Structures are given as structure tokens and as C-alpha cells.
Amino acid sequence: MGISINKELELEQPLEDIRHELVLNIVRTATVMAQKGALLFRRYDLTEAQFNVLFALKYKTSPWTQSDLGKRLVVTRASITSVLDKLEAKQLVKRNEVPGNRRIYHVSLTRKGQALIDEVEPVYRMNIHKAMESLSDGECRRMIVRLERIRAQSLAVDLEIDKAIE
User: Fold this and answer.
1) How far apart are the C-alpha atoms of 87 and 35, rounded to whole Å?
2) What share of the chain is helix, strand, coil (3-state, %, to 5)?
């Protein structure tokens, strides 16, 4: 059993809204996992965003442009450009010209990039499995379904900011 969010955050009064407590648990868990991931990636001179690009490129089955990567990783055009610039400087990815279109490039892993993601991925997966070892495969599947439902509902909600202010 884990530590309650009330105790972890040392709240003077326990949360009374169960949905708020759930959101805080989701956010806190994601933060902890991101921090642990950052420590792991730093050992390989990578950021989380750089790892995500290398990971995505490893498993693509067709040519992807910079724009394709940005959509899949849900980052801005400027962000993906910056990440790719840094990965290209490290010789981990390559931008390949697209015949007949000088405005776009296909992005691919270099041999060095492939070797690095092949080295990092098993360590990453091992750590994820350790973090999730208390959950069965069935529990993981059920949690995925629930989180997908929460995410879909959150995307569908129109924030009623004006009404809250009144």
C-alpha cells in the first residue's frame, strides 16, 4: 500500500473532494515518474523529449516528417525543431531531404541513434516494470481504460471559467 496524497503533501486538513484527490494523485504520480525518468535519461545525456523522439523513430514503419513527429509527441513545432536540432548535433538523428519538396524532411535514426535507443530502452522498460510490479497485467489494462476515459472526458469538458468567477 502506498502513502496517501494527504500524508505525502503533509496537508493540514485532508482533502474532502474525492475527485480532486484523484486528480492530485494522477498529477503527483506522473511527476514522480517523470523525475525518475529524467534521472535515467540524464545518464545517457538525453532529455525525456529526446528519448521520446528516439523511441518513436525506432518503432515507425513509414517515413515521418518533423511535423509527423510533433503530432505524435504532442509538442509544438518550435519544440520539435529544437529537440531535433540537439539530436542532430549529437549525430543521433538525420533529416533526409524529400525529393520534389525542399520544405520538408523525413527524420530517421542514425546508426549511433539506433545503438543508443537499443541500449537505453531495456533499462527504461526494466525500471517501468519495477515501478509497476505490484500491478497485474489485468490491473494495468483496467487502469489504462479508466485513464483513457478520464482523458477523453477531460478533453470534452468546456471549462466554465466565467461562471466560476461570477
Assistant:
1) 21
2) 65, 10, 25
Instruction: Give the model confidence (pLDDT) of 10-43 as tens digits.
Output: 777 878 888 988 999 999 999 999 999 999 999 9
- For residues 112 and 156, what is the distance between their CA atoms, to the nearest angstrom? 42
Whole-number Å distance between alpha carbons of 41 and 50: 9
Rounded Cα distance between 71 and 60, Å, is: 13
User: What's the grid cell of residue 100?
Assistant: 520534389
CB 44 within 8 A of CB 120: yes
Residue 166 has pLDDT above 70, yes or no: no
- How far apart, in Å, are the Cα atoms of 124 and each of 41, 91, 128, 129, 147? 9, 21, 6, 9, 22
Q: What is the pTM of this model?
A: 0.84
Query: How far, in Å, CA of 52 to CA of 146, rounded?
Result: 24
Give the H or E element holding residue 37. Answer: helix 18-43
- Structural domains of the chain in order of their starting residue, each with its CATH number: 15-156 (1.10.10.10)
| Nearest CA-CA partner of 27 in 13, 8, 11, 46 | 8
